[in-house]
Every structure is written in structure tokens, then in C-alpha cells.
Give the backbone structure.
Amino acid sequence: MSGVTGAATAACSSRHVAGFSTRCTEAQANRRAYARREISPAIFRRSVRCAADGGSSSPTPQIEANFDETFCIVDRGCEHVLRRLTPSQADVSSLDRLLRTVQFETNSEEWLALLKNNVDPADSSLNQTHSIDATGVFDENETLVGVCTSVTYQSCGRSFGHLGNIVVDETYRKKGVASMLLTNALFSLREKKVFISWLDASAMGQPLYRKMGFEPRSEVVEYRKEIHSGVTGTDGVTDDVDPCVRDDPRYAEDLAFAKSLDTTVFGADRTALLDAWRTASPGFSFCHVGDKKTGYALAHTRGDAVYLGPWGLVDGDDIRGVNENEIVKFIDDAIGEVEEKALRTLGVRKLIAYVPVSIIRGSAGVLAGTDDTPAVDTSAPAFRAARVMAEALERIGFVASEATTRMARVERNVPTEAQPELRLKEPGYPDRTLTVASLDLG
């Protein structure tokens, strides 16, 4: 772990230093007292642990990094602030810039809509089906140098969180920023009584996530197809009308059906999120349910890409029965429609679909572990429907590219009344899932 120079120590002696601090005792005591409910959240002030993620085998000191107070980062000065992003153009532009440094496709209008769902986790009067938080580290110039987003989903009394966009500026990596942001997000979820968390991890991020208690459950493979759009229409707007927003009760019914079925397949109501995608992409919105309503297929845009998701089926058992041909037809029709629509939209350069797949299991009944990868419970889903989806994509020219690992974490030392809900299990109906909506929002 990096040390701190004498000059930096003098400058930061009364502040919090990411990666180095001697002010651990009080923070640890407050944390334990809060866990025993001996002090209030206001006194606790949402202190978060900040662990250097440089791979050191020595114990990592813990520090306080309170919201809206300056703190130090080793070799980067002492005027950094941890705060939530607001639905302002300035914050969204900062987020857009940071995400683009790691080649993430972005849509500013989408994030403006999503950040309006930010809520105070301490406000128990709010009863929403889901809420979205985005927390960032800003430097002295108000430049966003690190961010972590999280979504809390509520469904039938069983809550879960999905973490995404854990991104740190290249010059700030290996200094504890990612650990601090991740710990803050996990603490925020715990404040909301959310004790199970999910995320999609790149190979680079997995060591940190494993250290924080996440375990691999499955993989999500990205399928993509390059296209040459803009045959007709104007920039960003197609020359036809989205059938799901026509002033026609039949199409309104289809959209309502798709949202309702997504709640079942995904395991939580995310209607507001789906609406935000549609609001952010007025020139391209897509909905397909098929003549027999075999399933649902939605799509949205980010950057120059159209994302095929979320897609799901009415009944996962049909994938093994007499209706498999009907399912294949539904998938083929939906892919054909979304590609045709994309070709008529200027600015679209590629189609992307995230397809979940099982991790290969060993003969002992668990995932065959290695020195770097822990074994995984065989209760993870088989994703039978998604295999049919992958075959359909490959048939029409989609190519499998990179894969991320979907990981999950169960909070330790939870209240007794919450323990029966903590069996690690994928929410919803994974075997009815065709594509994942996105890697950052679940």
C-alpha cells in the first residue's frame, strides 16, 4: 500500500486520507455502535470504510469519508468531496465524460431521468418500487473522478440491489477510491434493509468484488452486430411511428402487458426505469409481444447502439415442450423488427444484446473452482431460454464478444427477522429470461 509523504501528512493531518489514516478507532467504534442501534444514523453520518485496493496482503486501515466534507487521497491532494450526483446538466455531463473514458455507451437524457429517482435512504416515508443512487468523488475543480451507481428493487417484500458503473479515473486507481465507493453503496443498501446485492463484473473488477464478499453466479455474454443505418428518416428519428406509443388501445395494451411480464420475469417492478429509457430515446422506442403474446421484447438506445433488452417469455417450461417452435418464431420476429427499425434510424451503428449463460459446473455438483475463482452453488439457473436466444442471434450475424461475470453478495450479521429471506437465489424467473436489460441497471 502506498505511503504518504511528510508534506502530505502535514496538509492532511486533520482530514481523512483515502488509503492511509490514523483515525480508525473512533470510526470503528461508531460503526459497531450503529450496528447495535446505540447511536442514530445522524450521529453515524454514513461513515464508510475506505480500503486501498492495491492488492496488499497487509491489513487495510479504515477511515471516515463523510458526504459533502473534504478528504484527502494519497498523491492527489486534500480537496476531494464525496457526494451524490444530482439531476443537473453539470453532474450528468460529468458522469457522461467519466463513463466514456472506459468506452461505456451513455445517454445523457436517460441519466437525467434516472437521477430524478434519487431518494434519501434514511427517509422511510418513501415507498417506491425502485430507487437509483449515484455517488461520486469530485476533485477540487469539481471534476468527477470516481462514481458508483446502485438501484434498489422492491418486490413482494423481497428487496435486492444492483450495483453498476463502478468507474474510477485512470489517475485515481489503486488509491482506495473504488473500495470507498463500493462500501458506501453497500452501506446505503443496508440502510434500506436490502441485504442481497448483485453486479456484473469485468475481469479487472473481480478481485475487489471477491474481497468485498461477492461470489460468481453466472455470466452475461455480449452479442453485437454492426449495421449501416439511415436508409430513410432524419437524424435520430425514424420515419415510422412506434407501435407501442400510437394512440391505439391495442398497442397501449401490448406495452402494459410487456411491463407487467417484465416485473414477473425480472423479479421486481421497474416500470419507471423502462419509461425513462423510452423518454430518453424518443426517436427509437421498440416493443414487441407477438400475435400470441408468447413473450415481450423491448429495446432502447445509448450512444450509437440499440440494446435488445429486456426480453422474456411468458412460460419458461415451454422451452422444453411442444411450443418451442413458437418461441423461436417469437424471437426471430422480434430480432427482425428491431433490426429493421434500427436500419431506418440515422446514427445507429450497432445492435447489442446481453444474454445470460450458466457457468460450467464440475462433477462434484458445484462450479469447478480454481486458485482465483471460488466454487459456486449449483442452485444457479440454467438459462434454457437464453440458449435459444443466443442461437437465434448467431443465425442472423450477431457475434459473441466479451463476457462479464454476474456476482452476488449476501450481507452478514443481518437482523433476525430478515434472515429467512436471505437464501441466495436469482430474483424472478431466470429460465424465462432471453436478454438482460443492461449491465449497470440489471
User: Anything to note?
Assistant: The radius of gyration is 23 Å. The chain has two domains: 6-194, 220-406+421-435.
